[in-house]
Model the fold of this input.
Amino acid sequence: MSKKTLIGLTKANLPQWIWACLPFWVGSLIWALNGKTPDWVVLALFLATVIIIQAVAELANTYIDRFEDRIYVPSNPLVTGELTEDIARKALVLENIAAGLLLMALLLITLNYFLMIAMAVAWLTGLAYSLPPFKFKATIAGPFSFALTTALIPIAACLLAGSLNSFMIAFAAFIFVGTFGANISTGQLRKTAEALTHGLIKIENGNNICNIKTVGLRVKLKTAMALEAISGLTAFVLVGIFWHLDIFPVVLSIALLGLSLPFTLLTVAFRMKSRIGNAQRCVELAGVAALLATLSFFSVALVSVLHWHWGYATIVSIGFLIGFGLLCKQIRPFGPVRQAT
Done:
């Protein structure tokens, strides 16, 4: 296999998004274990399984979007020619086999059937998001499917540690609601803006732009905007509620409300100012909000559970952000965006 093909295959698995989720997975395990010494073999197997499940979902999305990404994601290696359809298809089959084998190994070692159910649902939902006959991403079920897959990770971490607890269930609810809105921002509304730019969607004379149908959700633009704003802001209402109920630690609640919430508010504000013109800016703001929420969760876990100094937790978080930035610079997940012809 040539170097070009290996690079293309790596890009097709979207390693920048896998990297972005790493603090979330590790943070979930830290919170779930709550200071207990883990079985390191089981822990490593769990992380390997979670990583391959996300890689499978990302590769499926890259493969199924190989035609439409000529417009929406021209950096797709199946668009640039770095990867052939045949190799991508074979890699998808092999990665699914690897995911199944890892799940079976985890089951044999832990005999934890509830854990297997949670992870199998995440695996199958991740595939159903992109692949036919379901292809949830092209329906109103898309953001729900995406959010469910993400929210199952802290639940699976708890099941691995032995039992569910109110904090992790509450955080899974926060993640579900927030991710629902973020998927609308980075997926459907971004693609709708691109489709308008390239003339795939046209506004008929006398028709309001708010009434056009969005790409994917197939609902009116104003409805998608309302869903984006309501779900994004509701997530932080939940933070306040969980804080009041003493489910969320004070420091985590302050971090989420002080760091992540402002970027969510900016996303809503820029969307209202220009429904389509600010689409890329809204993607960036929603992405920053999600990253800061993940890093808040991870950093507070390091300090509160593992008793790290805040300075060390900050250094680790900055190192993570540098790694994420370097991956995005190399892969350019949404671009470069081409002009309409």
Summary: Residues 182 and 286 are 6 Å apart (CA to CA).
